[in-house]
Model the fold of this input.
Amino acid sequence: MTALFALATSLLWGLADFGGGVLARRTPALTVVVVSQTIATVVLGAMVLVTGAWSERGPQLWFAVGAGLVGPVAMLAFYKALALGPMGVVSPLGSLGVAVPVGVGLVLGERPGLLQFAGIAVAVAGVVLAGGPQFRGAPVQRQAVALTLLAAFGFGAVMALIAEASTTLTGLFLALFVQRVTNVLAGGTALYVSVRRGTSPPPKVARRSLVAFAFVGLADVAANGTYALAAQRGPVTVAAVLASLYPVVTALAARGFLSERLRGIQAAGAGLALVGTVLLATG
Done:
């Protein structure tokens, strides 16, 4: 079940990133974050009320608050790094965040078998290559590297924090709700300040785009939920690596919906990621 939930996570995160990237081409990234997370918060709030999840409140929810504070910072840093480019360097570097939850799992005493260690190495290499790293061309700005590493650490920290925020299914609904409320408060404050300073235009969202915003927000929430379930049911080291395969999904979605051609190194990376997945699942 760990492998199943973790692979579902990579699928959902990959599609959410693809949708968010498409929306960010015509809408400021901060607006995309705030609007999509607001929609997700409303849906999660209804689920908390229906399931009575509020009874699961406890000190573990501070992990959800932490994830909610770190998430928007990581996402905005990643978008800024992509804007500075080159994307062929930024994208694979962003996947290094998997080191955070894997490291946490090892510190807590998890010891994957030899086959699983091999799967981790192969899968991580596949994810990095699937981003299509550039080995020559335009120089990389130090700011882009710093922002990418900040984003990677943030993404990994969110994975580690959300896995600790609940122990039951209803508790997970509450934890995700708290995380999203924090996301919206943090992102909304940043958006308000940005508009007041004149560095960003007032947010405008066309009605026809609301479905796309809802998909991005809800897919991201669902991914956080399936990852938490994966981490609770098996080794965090395995769950984190399988969940980190989302760049492969994003690349394939771009190929299918935008007709973007996969470079040879990306295709090889996708293949390695698949091999690593098989090793992890069978190990």
Observations:
- The mean pLDDT is 81.
- The CA atoms of residues 104 and 213 lie 32 Å apart.
